[in-house]
Amino acid sequence: MEDEMTRLYQAVYKGETSELRQQLLRNPSAIHALDHNGDSLMHLAIRTGSLHTVAELIACGFDVNTRSAAGWTIMEEAVAAMHHDAPHQTPAREALFRHVYHAVQADEQRRWSARRKQLLDALHSMPDFSLVLSWTIGSWMLGGSRLLRRFLPSDTYTMRKEGVRLRVDASRDGRAGKERTSRRGALQLNR
């Protein structure tokens, strides 16, 4: 088994996609295995900068939510690889980052579609409501109260739910009430 894993990692390091594909066909469960440093095949492929290897792993069914032993996602690895080459950004690293980004977005769309019906049913079963949440930080409390008072002294959220429509409006007073910004968000799902 160790010899197979060595060949698999060597295929990633060398960018040999046909060898990688053959190894994964022989041992499909190895696609998410971690090496002795705690890195997956995808994390290593991103570090080597091989777009073809990254594309092959995604095509073979690599789960883009897999983390290394250090807790790094493949998106974080791709961002780190971009910053590593920042002074002389190469188009290859940018293409690799875009490929990883699109794979992660496609996975998120699939997961959202799977949860959509459950969310619609939950919203439909809830009664309509309107809710206002507001706070002001003014007293001394242990920890970060000084920091919170400086950047977020008060805030108000207004939430409304009608049918399957959910809307959240927020307004924040800036430092000493001198500036006021407004943020809005709406979620409307159709059956």
Topology (elements, then pairings):
Blueprint lengths: L1 H13 L2 H10 L14 H8 L2 H9 L14 H11 L6 H35 L3 E8 L8 H7 L2 E9 L2 E9 L6 E9 L3
Antiparallel strand pairs: 1-2, 2-3, 3-4
Helix pairs in contact: 1-2, 1-3, 3-4, 3-5, 4-6, 5-6
Question: Can you tag this structure with a few keywords?
Answer:
about 190 residues; single chain; alpha+beta; elongated; about 50% helix; four-stranded antiparallel β-sheet; about 20% strand
Q: What about the largest sheet?
A: 4 strands, antiparallel
Order of helices and strands: HHHHHHEHEEE
User: What overall geometry do the principal axes of the alpha carbons give?
Assistant: elongated
Strand order of the largest sheet: 1-2-3-4
Helix content: 40-55%
Rounded mean pLDDT score: 82
**How far apart, in Å, are the first and last alpha carbons?**
50 Å
Which regions have little confidence, pLDDT < 50, spanning 5+ residues?
174-178
Q: Report the portion of residues in β strands.
A: 15-25%
The gyration radius over C-alpha positions equals: 24 Å
The tally of helices reads 7
